[in-house]
């Protein structure tokens, strides 16, 4: 419902009439929420542009436009001198500058610079009374214009060492975003289970219990099915297949998932973590199983990494098509989910709230749920009072609902993650020599993130036992 309010905020920078019309057509929404959704939309639009750039159909369509992609020798020679183009630019044509993996690098570089700039500007903003909050929550036309200008300017950076250096920043940023992504996934699992258990306890019907068990069983079935398929397709054939590392990844993840499930239902764990159950480990099992697949898909050894095309067609000669792979689509979906969840998650007692600085200045963490209910009551009062046409209200007069600076920093890291996902994690196909080393590095980054996810989840269960003097409620 807040997406409409976000679009209304975008229309505000063009004309106040458009804003009034849009706001009148959508439900009430907090200004802090609609703003985060708007920034999320900017990231998603940028990701869509990057997806189009690596889609073969788009590249083929551009190649059919004579005046745009003509192989003009004189023009290419001029561009080669200006941008330090590689020698094969003459055979690739002018369109090679605006499509492909190198173009994705530059679009994501522009988005990263934009969000880093906003992150620096928004440092130490405490409330909406700060003049900088106006930049955060308004001026959308100018911010979109600046973002577009930075992206266009990035295409004027000379080719060569830029891609090599930016790749290292990309993998560091992607790894940091994966760590944030892990916290979001774990928080989502705990929040989901806690919410449904509360509804189950408040309701005399067994419907919520059946729903909880159905979702849990479904999640475990997905994890089990994925594990079986991994053993069938990703461990090679015969005893000398050389895919022992994949066998270790799959087996370790299977044992770990069983371990966290048993740990979650132990009596002494549930005594200190009352909301612990089997829904959380089922969600974590699905996510870590996906990470194992993502890691194995980055293995440059084709004997151990058949690719989705070969698996679907059951044909060893079917090559994985260039462009956006199945793994890329799954990665983009997980990214979208995490960004949306971080945008709408406002509970001050959640891991996301503490991660992004929600309620640092206006909530007492010790009061927990009461503070959240009181804040919601105040928000409803603000929404219902005053101007009847006011659909987006300022909920940050007394203190910001989230850290502006950290939120933009997270989106900057997400831009790096988009870049690395769509370019196959250091495998942009412009040097065969770097493909082997890059693929191996990406494989270890992803499998390490899987183990980190398991470790973080275990810590959320055992931390109250170890740190007894701290309040984890």
From TrEMBL:
GO terms for cellular component: membrane. It is found in: Membrane. Residues 1-19 form the signal peptide. Its main location: membrane. InterPro entries: TDE1/TMS. It is a multi-pass membrane protein. Keywords: Membrane, Signal, Transmembrane, Transmembrane helix. The chain crosses the membrane at residues 37-58, 103-125, 137-159, 165-186, 207-233, 245-266, 278-296, 329-347, 406-427, 447-467. Belongs to the TDE1 family. PANTHER family: SERINE INCORPORATOR, SERINE INCORPORATOR, ISOFORM F. This is Serine incorporator. It comes from Holothuria leucospilota.
């Amino acid at each position: 419902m807040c997406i409409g309010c976000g679009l209304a905020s975008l229309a505000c920078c063009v004309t106040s009439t458009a804003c009034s019309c849009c706001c009148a057509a959508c439900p009430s929404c907090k200004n802090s929420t609609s703003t985060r959704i708007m920034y999320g939309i900017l990231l998603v639009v940028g990701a869509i542009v990057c997806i189009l750039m690596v889609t073969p159909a788009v590249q083929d369509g551009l190649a059919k436009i004579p005046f745009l992609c003509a192989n003009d020798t004189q023009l290419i020679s001029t561009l080669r001198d200006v941008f330090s183009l590689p020698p094969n630019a003459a055979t690739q044509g002018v369109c090679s500058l605006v499509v492909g993996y190198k173009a994705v690098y530059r679009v994501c570089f522009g988005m990263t610079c934009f969000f880093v700039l906003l992150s620096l500007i928004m440092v130490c903003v405490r409330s909406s009374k700060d003049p900088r909050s106006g930049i955060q929550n308004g001026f959308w036309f100018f911010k979109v214009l600046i973002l577009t200008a930075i992206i266009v300017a990035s295409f004027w950076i000379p080719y060569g060492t830029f891609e090599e250096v930016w790749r290292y920043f990309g993998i560091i940023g992607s790894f940091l975003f994966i760590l944030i992504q892990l916290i979001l996934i774990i928080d989502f699992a705990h929040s989901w289970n806690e919410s449904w258990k509360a509804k189950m306890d408040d309701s005399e019907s067994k419907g919520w219990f059946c729903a909880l068990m159905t979702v849990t069983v479904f999640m475990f079935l997905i994890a089990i099915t994925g594990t079986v398929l991994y053993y069938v397709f990703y461990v090679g054939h015969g005893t000398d297949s050389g895919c022992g590392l994949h066998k270790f990844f799959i087996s370790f993840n299977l044992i770990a998932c069983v371990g966290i499930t048993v740990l979650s239902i132990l009596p002494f764990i549930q005594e200190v973590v009352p909301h612990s159950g089997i829904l959380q480990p089922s969600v974590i099992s699905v996510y870590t199983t996906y990470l194992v697949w993502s890691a194995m898909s980055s293995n440059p050894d084709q004997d151990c990494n058949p690719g989705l095309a070969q698996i679907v067609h059951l044909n060893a000669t079917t090559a994985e098509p260039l462009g956006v792979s199945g793994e890329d689509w799954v990665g983009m979906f997980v990214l979208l989910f995490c960004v949306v969840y971080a945008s709408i998650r406002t509970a001050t007692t959640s891991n996301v709230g503490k991660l992004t600085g929600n309620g640092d200045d206006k909530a007492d963490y010790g009061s927990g749920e009461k503070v959240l209910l009181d804040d919601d009551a105040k928000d409803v009062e603000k929404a219902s009072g005053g101007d009847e046409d006011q659909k987006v209200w300022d909920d940050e007069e007394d203190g910001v609902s989230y850290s502006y600076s950290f939120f933009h920093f997270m989106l900057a890291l997400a831009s790096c993650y988009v870049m690395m996902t769509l370019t196959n994690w250091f495998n942009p196909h412009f040097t065969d020599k770097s493909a082997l080393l890059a693929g191996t590095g990406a494989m270890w980054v992803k499998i390490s993130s899987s183990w980190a996810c398991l470790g973080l989840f275990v810590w959320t269960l055992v931390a109250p036992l170890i740190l007894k003097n701290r309040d984890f409620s």
